[in-house]
Structures
1.
Amino acid sequence: MVWGYLSEFWDAITQEVVESGVYTIDWFQSLGNAVAGAIGGLFENLIHHLYDIFYIFNWLFDNLADLFLSIFSPLKWIFSFLKGFWISATAPPVEPEVVYQTAGQVKDIFEAVPYWQYFSMAIGIGLSILVLGFIFKRLANF
């Protein structure tokens, strides 16, 4: 470990200082560079491991957020739909800006056909049955 290296380094320095008794500028510069390099290596290693731990937590929480958003998105859709439905159901009806009117001659033609209301209802029911039959046929093919 780096701490063990620093203690061995310090023991070697103190032993050399005691034995030699000479302290030159080069000796102090090399001593300072060695200590700075050892301490810098210690903190670089520590910062690297802390960054890795931070990165793992960042990845974990990012994926957990995506997971919760995926899980709760159907509930969010349902509540948004119910809220919109409730607001539109309780709101007063909106008057249409444009009212489509048929010409009087066309209206007279349809009113001249006897039992036109019943015929139009029968045509609507028939078309609805055809559409339902088509839907059930498509579902049966799956």
2.
Amino acid sequence: MDKLLEKIEQKVFLPSGLVCVFIMTLLTTCDTVGRYILRMPISGSYDIIENYLMIAIFYFIISYAYREGANIRITLFVEKLPRHMRLFFNYVVQVVAILYCLFLFVTSLLCNLPRLNEMLVLTKYNLPLMPVFLLIPIGLMLLTLRMIVDLWHIKDGKSGLFKEEAAEESIVA
């Protein structure tokens, strides 16, 4: 399962996120040049960036970022504990994070399914918001699965949630 998730992340989601970053950069640059130099801004560029690209970037790369250890954690009290207690708290934190992520997945699915027919109304054209409404639960589902699979990597220090901590322990030891 771990290899399948990694393949999905690296072959589909990460490249899609990078393409969205490229498109967002290109669109922002062209809109800025058009607005301030040519006095002809791109109509609806802000709405496309805000309602499509930024959301897509986040949910395309959230699972990959987790796997690579890009997490914000406060370890002030836990780092003072003995190793066995720290391991216990790491498991507790991982299970709570999985349950929270599962809650977000179910909530986003229930909230976004009725909204699949909504359209983004711009000045010149209408765009369906369905791709974004589907991408949110899909990204959260992939993250939840990644965290569940990662539960077995906590003991050996290879969990994405505790990557930095494991690296520090190996330096100290």
